[in-house]
Amino acid sequence: MNLNLVRNAVSNLLGAVVPALVMLVTVPLVVKGLGEANYGVYSLVTAIVGYFAVMDINVTAGSVKYIAEHNARGEDGRIAETMSFGLATYAIIGLLGAIGLFLGARWFVTGVFSVPAALAPEAVATLKLAALGFLLGQMQNYLNSVPQALMRYDISSRVEMVFGTLVPLATVGVLALGYGLFEVIAVRVLASSVHCLVLWRAIQRLLPGLRWRWPGARLRAEVLGFSAYSFLSRFASLSYAYADKLIIGALVGVTALAYFSVAATLANRVLGLTFRLSGVFFPAASALAASGELARLDQVYLKATRYVVYLNAAILVLVAVFAHRILGYWMNEDFARNGALVLALMAMAQFIDSLTSLPSLVNDGMGHPRVSGLFALGRAAAGLAIVYLGVAGWGIVGAAAAHLAGAILFTTAFLVYVHGRTVPTALPRLLAHGYAPGLAGVALVAIAATAAEHMFDQGLADFIGILAVTVILLGVHGFLFVVERDDRLLAWARVKARWQPAGS
């Protein structure tokens, strides 16, 4: 079975890298155009809409699993039935969520959160408009998953790259023309509608014989049975991802929320990039499990862990060590002073969380979403209690520290439980072959970079010099001690081939 894992992983990564770079450029402009308080309201609106996504019972996960399996067996009719069920489900979820957001907009803005009275009318109107965006977003998320289930991440990522680039640029353009928060959301709603149309056309080309076919009771039960436990993971993840912002908005205010959101968004976007490399493992593990190729799954899993953990650790060093400088040059000194520690702590929390990405995808692909769902639910319940206490006691820094504490506790428990049980790889093998090659050297580079940043960084030139040396040391360590010998030889052979005359 040719899964084209490398091609799909790289395509999936590029679909996130380009929008992330555009985000890095445009966020300061958006904050400046809206103002810190209005940007806090914008963060609050997106958090409320995002929290409503807990209504999503995660039929996407079940759909991806079974579309991947049916595709591996050549069962086109089953693919059509699974898609029809998924589209109908997400249309209903989207409509219910949109109605709830529209009707509850005023209560959320004036009755729950600390929105200044002068900003409340536009915040209410913006949240009502965002209700339509919720409906479109649900359809968009499902349609985006279909090419991925067919192992065509190149298509879904290409579309995502285009819209992920155009929307932030259009947002900056709208603000430059003198418009405000309402118009920013209007641009995003319009983009979501076009995004859905483009994805639908791409799916029609991938599945030219696709027709509406309502599934029988057995297929519905299979999809819903898998999705029911997967829903726990999604519910917990969304709760944990957005509740901190809601808590900060209620207890501290929208200006502090702006500082936290910028730092947390940067950490999530940058550290989340390598999740795109590992995201292809869900349909791949489903297909390999259906074919009984567990030995191949174990081999690929260990190699992917080795590389992904190293990349995330290297990115963590660059973000956490230079957090104050990054926020200072990227945003301004106010954001650096209020958000540097938040950025460093959130980056560390994201790195710890990333250690569960591959094993949870393999666990679900092997057909055990109950395990990951229950762990995620426990983590969200305990984690949110810790976050609430952190915000109440220490503001946004307390929120970031609480995220880190929760990540350490539940990541450790999850890794110990699943390996050798639902993931067909023993934990000692994972530690020896997946973690050890990269983490030891990266830790030494982190210590050296921290010392140099405190001792020698007196200006922009010093910062660039220390950053460059850190990147070089991380790269040398990765090439010598992380990249496997066969992969180094293959890469070198391809480099040599490019220098050979044509036809030789």
Describe the structure.
With 504 residues, this protein is an all-alpha fold. It has helices spanning 5-34, 36-52, 59-73, 76-112, 120-149, 153-176, 181-206, 217-251, 254-271, 273-278, 281-291, 294-321, 323-330, 333-354, 357-365, 369-418, 427-456, 460-482, 485-499. The relative contact order is 0.11. The mean pLDDT is 86.
Task: Give keywords.
single chain, mainly alpha, 19 helices, globular
Give the helices and strands, then pairings:
Layout: H1 5-34, H2 36-52, H3 59-73, H4 76-112, H5 120-149, H6 153-176, H7 181-206, H8 217-251, H9 254-271, H10 273-278, H11 281-291, H12 294-321, H13 323-330, H14 333-354, H15 357-365, H16 369-418, H17 427-456, H18 460-482, H19 485-499
Task: Write a brief caption for the model.
This protein is mostly helical and 504 residues long.
Sheet with the most strands?
none
Q: Please trace the helix and strand order, writing H or E for each element.
A: HHHHHHHHHHHHHHHHHHH
Distance between the termini: 32 Å
Radius of gyration: 23 Å
Structural class: mainly alpha
Q: Uncertain runs with pLDDT below 50, 5 residues or more?
A: none
Helix content bin: over 70%
Overall 3D shape: globular
The proportion of residues in beta strands is under 5%
Number of domains: 1
Mean pLDDT, rounded to whole units? 86
Annotation, overall tally of beta strands: 0
Number of helices: 19
